[in-house]
Design brief:
The protein has no helices and 21 strands. The protein is mostly beta strands. Strands 1, 2, 3 and 4 form a four-stranded antiparallel sheet that branches. The protein has a four-stranded antiparallel sheet with strand order 5-6-7-8, with no helix packed on it. A hairpin with a 6-residue loop joins strand 19 and strand 20. About 2% of the residues have low confidence.
């Protein structure tokens, strides 16, 4: 409802905030032993996902059901998890690791690993589901973009050197459409799309956040 925010930190905690009051709603929760690197909230408000872990031992992926307070652990990653995304229909969870080449897609309700997507990347920078939950976009630190189809598990690779520009792709053809979004002077490290698809926010190593 836009009134609350969830934050995660290297201090191994997750906090829930009242945006209007600027205060914590409830006491801090310690959920990851090695720090929280990513946080996600499902659109139906039912699930909160935290990701973290240790690069030398294992990744930590935990799902918290808001209504019951029950926390479950999804096991499988062997390295620190740095990026996650929840599908728009709140049924799928995607996760990627810092120094690895595998993206995993899970059933958010049951915790079952649905499939793995192999990739020739040194690390996974971000994962994002399409609005219809049928495609998954992946960006790597090697300047590669991959579009995977969640239904048939096929995927296509696209290489974009030094990604300082945002491109819009047709989901069926993977061809660029419309004019690109230009303005950042350094590599873009984060993207977020509003629920209605009208606004796009981008973050960059040029120390700016832009709204498009």
């Amino acid at each position: 409802d836009g009134k609350q925010m969830i934050s995660g930190s290297e201090d191994q905690t997750v906090r829930r905030w009242d945006l209007q009051a600027g205060k914590e709603i409830e006491g801090v929760r310690e959920v990851c032993e090695e720090g929280v690197h990513a946080v996600g909230v499902s659109r139906d408000g039912r699930w909160i996902v935290t990701a973290g872990g240790d690069d030398n031992e294992c990744g930590e992926l935990k799902v918290w059901e808001v209504k019951t307070g029950i926390i479950r652990t999804f096991e499988g990653h062997s390295q620190s998890i740095t990026c996650i995304d929840i599908s728009a229909d709140s049924t799928l969870l995607a996760s990627g690791v810092r120094y690895g080449s595998t993206i995993r897609v899970w059933n958010l309700k049951t915790g079952k690993l649905l499939f793995e997507i192999p990739a020739s990347y040194s690390s996974v920078g971000a994962v994002r589901f399409s609005q219809d939950s049928k495609k998954l976009a992946v960006i790597s630190d090697d300047d590669d973009y991959m579009f995977a189809r969640t239904k048939d598990r096929d995927y296509d690779d696209i290489n974009i050197d030094e990604p300082k520009t945002i491109y819009e792709f047709d989901a069926s053809t993977l061809q660029t459409v419309r004019a690109p979004f230009e303005g950042h002077t350094n590599i873009i490290c984060g993207l977020a799309l509003s629920f209605d698809g009208a606004l796009l926010a981008s973050a960059s190593y040029d120390q700016t956040i832009k709204l498009w």
